[in-house]
Amino acid sequence: MSLFAADYLPSPDPFFEFDKWTKLAVTSKEIEPTAMTLSTISQEQRPRARTVLFKGLLQNTILFFTNYESNKALELEANPFAALTFHWKTLELQIRVEGRVVKTSRQESEKYFATRSRDSQIGAWVSQQSRVLKSKNEMEIKKREIEEKFKDKDVICPPFWGGYHVVPDFFEFWIAGKGRLHDRFQYNLDKKLGWTMVRLYP
C-alpha cells in the first residue's frame, strides 16, 4: 500500500520531491534505504549496473563515493553520464535519475573520508577495486600492511579514492498502484524553460 494518496501530485521542483522521498526512505523499515543502482556504459558500449550508496543531495547534485581506479570510474571518465535507480520495496516507490557526472573536489573527498569508520578507511587502501585477486590471503596480507602503516595515526584519504556529483537533467518518480496502474511523473530539464513535468502511463 502506497503512503501517498491516489490523487497525489508531486512538487514542480524535482529536487524537493527527491529530497522528500529519500528522507522518507531513511526513516522507513527499508534494510538499505540509501542503496542506489548506478548504471554506466562500458568501452564496448555495453550497459553496466552495480549498487552504490547515496551520500546526500548537495547543491542539486546527487553524491556518491568510490575508487577512481574501478571499472565504473574508468567508464565515467570515458563517458561522464550516468543513470541512477532507487527502489524501495516496502514503500512501493522508485526514482530514476539521469545526468552528467563530475568528480568532487579533493577537499570534499577528504572531508567525507574522515567520517568513515577506520575499518572502511583501511579497506579503501586495501582494495584494488575490480582488479583480479589471486587469493583471499593476498588481500589479508595487504590489509595487515596498511594497518601497520597507519598504526597510531589517522588514515588519510587515498589519492585514488573520491566522490562524484551526478548533475540531473531527468527524473522519474514511480508510485505503485492497484492492478499495476502505477503513477509515474517524469521531469525533464529544458535549457530555456527549466524543469517541466508530465504524467506517464504505467
- The percent of residues in helical segments reads 25-40%
Based on Cα principal axes, name the global outline: elongated
The average pLDDT value, as a whole number, equals 95
> Helix and strand string, N-terminal first?
HEEEEHEEHHHEEE
Distance between the termini: 17 Å
Poorly predicted segments: none
Number of helices: 5
Beta content: 35-45%
Radius of gyration: 19 Å
In short, what is this structure?
With 202 residues, the protein is α+β, with helices and mostly antiparallel strands. 26% of the residues lie in helices and 36% in strands.
What does this structure look like?
- The protein is of the alpha+beta class and 202 residues long.
- Helices cover 26% and strands 36% of the residues.
- It has five helices and nine strands.
- Strands 1, 2, 3, 4, 5, 6, 7, 8 and 9 form a nine-stranded antiparallel beta sheet that branches.
- Strand 7 (161-175) and strand 8 (183-190) form a beta hairpin.
- The radius of gyration is 19 Å and the shape is elongated.
Give the SSE map.
Layout: H1 14-26, E1 35-41, E2 47-53, E3 57-58, E4 61-67, H2 71-78, E5 81-88, E6 93-103, H3 106-113, H4 118-126, H5 136-149, E7 161-175, E8 183-190, E9 194-200
Which structural traits does this protein have?
alpha+beta, 5 helices, 202 residues
